[in-house]
Amino acid sequence: MTLLQQRPPAGAGDHPEHAEHHDEPTFIVKWLTSTDHKVIGINYMVTAIVMFYLSGVMALAMRVQLSSPSGVGMSLQTYNELFTMHGSLMLYLFAGPFAFGGLANYIVPMQVGAPDMAFPRLNAFSYWLYLTGSITMLLGFLTSTGAAAFGWVAYAPLSTSTYSPGPGADLWIISLFLTGFSAVFTGVNLVATIFYLRAPGMTMWRMPIFTWNMLVTALLILIAFPVLTAAMVFLWTDRHLGTHIYTVAGGGVPVLYQNLFWFFGHPEVYILALPYFGIATEIIPVFSRKPVFGYKGLVFATLAIAALSTGVWAHHMFTTGTVLLPFFSLLSLLIAVPTGVKFFNWIGTMWRGQISFKTPMLFCVGFLLAFLMGGLTGVMLASPPIDFATHDTYFVVAHFHQVLFGTAVFAGFAGFYFWYPKMFGRMLHDGLGKAHFWTMFVGFWLTYLPQYVLGLHGMPRRIATYPSGLGWTALNMASTVGSFIIGASFLIMLVNLWVSWRRPVPAGDNPWDGHALEWFASSPPVHHNFEKLPPIRSERPTWDFNHPDARTIPHGRHAEHELVGAGASAARGDDTTGA
Amino acid sequence: MPDPRHDAGRGRRHADDAGRRSRRRRRLAAAGAAALPLVLAGCKLPTFYGYRGRTSQAHDEFLLFAGTVIAAIVVGAITGALILWSVFRYRRRSDAIPRQFQYHIPLEIFYTAVPIVIVLVLFGFTVYTENKVDNIAPNPAVTVKVTAFQWGWRFDYTNQHVFVTGVREDNPDPVGLGGKTCVASAPTPNDCLGPALVLPTRETVRIVLVSNDVVHGFYVPQFNFNRYALPGHTNRFDFNISHSGIYRGQCNQLCGLYHSQMFFHVVALPPAQFDAWVTGTQPQPDNASLGSTGASTTGASTTGASTTGASTTGTSTTGTSTTGTSTTGASTTGTSTTGTSTTGTSTTGTSTTGTAPPTATTSS
Amino acid sequence: MKVESRLLVGVALFFLVTGVGYWFWSYEQSGTVMLIGAVLLGMVPGGYYLWWSQRMKPRPEDRPDGTLEEGAGVIGAFPGSSIWPFVMAMGLFSCALAAVFGLWLLAPGFAAVFFAAIGYTVESRRGGTV
């Protein structure tokens, strides 16, 4: 069963002996028993995308309900269940697992030149915990009292047994145990893989930014998720063992829940965002045919974002009146700095490049624009007085949807379109991909821009009905229409998958002229990934191998001609149109 | 305290250091310098869909909001323009491989330093505004204890021994201005949902906010303000209402099943009319001598109308009964029709005649 | 190892500074405790790596001039496939559901976890170094 994995030889490759190639298990057995990081990664992604679609359908149902003031007859309980599950599925079961369970699992070992994750069986165990956790959460809908209905944050004491009796809430809580442990195990696995299984020459400062971001994400997971688990344990004991940790009656402190939750919850936002920044940073250079601009600056910006993100949890609690406003406000505002650095690095990467707008790149540009808007409104919300006016309104809803949709969906599906050829050896149709993008892009802005206005006009979050005559109806209707356009775009994606399945177009090993090591492997890669490796002398060994005469200009030779140096650049003749 | 000219000047000097590429930046810094006094000048600013605010605190918040929006638009426009410029200008036109440059240290320092400056300026304004918004005056003219519960509100005027309570969507409200008058004077009928929080204008109003059960949110959009009502923790804040009028309010923190319907509204009256309203709902002297609970009971009978108002709209009123009259309330709500006929008519009459006519004008 | 250890020690130092600053600015307990927890999270593995990084030569993957030939040889043992992760997860799933649907679910749960633990161990022994 076990393979003592040998390093693949340098240069041209012979097949190393693979012990288990002769007894490939059949489909269902393979699915149940595989410890191959690629199979597990794909399992993760498929499950996460199923969760994404389910959650999206819930969102559409809610948007239908909100299209008119008195709704369309959905009960309040159903509405509360739907937004709770929509948030929980998207945040706990889609955005995180899709990136650090799915893409990281698949891509990180390949990018560092490893044959597998450091602990393959722990990896499989993580996936099964994630899957059972997802099932547990959805089981709530089958109970007689319905699923959890206290919002994805489950503020105590609303989530205690007095106000939320019933098994739906308990299922929600234990679902977070299971997925929380899954995330921690994956985090440990990723750190160990990155620290111990890098190929020779792949120093830390040569790891692709995607891998760097995953490493930082894994550290954030290790910091944040145990706190969530602790908060959930307390909540469970409050519900069942008669403790009073969050209830005033027994001398508990309800705000403690919020402190614990957001100490997890804010890093969680970056656990959801950083992997997607990594995806964008992987794609933009490839389609611009340039190295990523300011590599080290980007790594430090990522570290700075992660560090700051753990010191800002209470900016979700400005309106509790119990937190130290200036401390959290300053740290929250400072996050804008490394985020801005990332933006300029992305722009600098595109600058004077040769950008081809294949589907993944198009999604990345969509991500940049969406995240720009979401980021700027985030800076506004970091200011407590503005938060006093907009907290828990649709302004916040629009803000975090622009951030999370911008990252997890735009950048996430950029990554999906980007790596799909590597995973399955076949292309997705570029025209359909572009149709998917443009439909989604239009729907995205139509959905969320009206919500900013609604929030500023005082529409609170999480309400199933709203008074008529306040000027909210038309804006809500626009938002609903937008959400259905987004929904339509994901039907286009399904068509695209079907087309690629029925009429495969072979991708080849390196369809995009990629940079990192995964593009050196075959598509799909063989069992332990590499039959040969190129020499690793920069963060993009595959590019160096394919373009030996177009290596990155060494650090320090930037002075003679740079962004301003139009003349120098034109004189070199590498800018075909002049400046 | 942030002086806009000083901050803008710092920005300008910084831009000068950045060399010959800074001309565009310098123009932006100048634009920022022009924008900031504009922010402080105030009222001629576009609203950016926000509310200018009907309290002095809300107005301070609005100025910060508008200034931040302007800054965000400037920053967003520059960044967005750079993104779109790269996207359109550097489309692939040939198979040539572009120069493989990766670092430009001065530029990287520049685009790290500039956001730090912007953020620190914003932080300065934030702290300045925050201190004004959160300031607690030593001697408020009126103190109202606001108790949130599932799913309604109770407003205790602690010194006047009066309270108002109501659950969910009492529509139109039976206390405060009286249903018809509120609807007539409010911008829309739906601004009158829920119980009325009657407050004087031009005086400092202290709100003492607590919750009886779960976390609620006290939110008045036109006051640009919301604050959690937490169980076991008391929040205090002040309003200085500048314009009389009717302002809708709502719970904005998810609090359970009927969260969507947990309305209230603020009726801001000039001080003289506010005093008249308080007198009109004042308990009988013999009851007042019973102390706060006795007075509250009187208040409960006064405003029991709101309870029954709720029950006439077909909503459950158990929440009110617990907070309203401590033990007998439950039975009252059980027989909602009698409640309406006995207490409702008399008391709403009182409050309506006391206050309604002069406030027929909404804010301007 | 150097970069890795510095990264983790850096995590610890950052949270130390933040935690001390936060405590003396706010005197709020829960946040301070969590920040101290984060210090330990960085310090424990970071200290371990730091200790080792001063006692071992840079590995081929730590050196910019490391070549693939230097890294030739056995990397480690990677089980090709195993049913035990699935069994163990199902056991835990059953145990978790016991918290909602009744304690009897603990019985199959513990049984599955027990067998899976044995299965893991036996598999590892058979497979050699892990």
Descriptive terms for the model:
heterotrimer, B: alpha+beta, Immunoglobulin-like, 2 domains, five-stranded mixed sheet, 11 helices, 47% helix, elongated, C: mainly alpha, 5% strand, flat
What does this structure look like?
The complex is a heterotrimer of chains A (579), B (364) and C (130). Chain A contains 16 helices and 1 strand. With 579 residues, chain A is mostly helical. Chain A has one domain: Up-down Bundle (Cytochrome C Oxidase, Chain A). In chain A, helix 2 (37-66) packs antiparallel against helix 3 (76-111), helix 6 packs antiparallel against helix 7 (254-288) and helix 12 (394-424) packs antiparallel against helix 13. Chain A is globular, with a radius of gyration of 24 Å. With 364 residues, chain B is an alpha+beta fold. The radius of gyration of chain B is 27 Å and the shape is elongated. In chain B, strand 6 and strand 7 form a beta hairpin. With 130 residues, chain C is mainly alpha-helical. Chain C folds into 2 domains: 2-63; 84-127. Chain C has helices at residues 2-26, 29-53, 84-101, 106-127; one strand at residues 74-79. In chain C, helix 1 packs antiparallel against helix 2 (29-53) and helix 3 runs antiparallel to helix 4 (106-127). The longest helix of chain C is centred in the first third of the chain and has 25 residues, at 2-26. The relative contact order of chain C is 0.10. The mean pLDDT of chain C is 87. Classes of the chains: A mainly alpha (579), B alpha+beta (364), C mainly alpha (130). Chains in contact: A-B, A-C. The interface between A and B is large, with 105 and 94 residues.
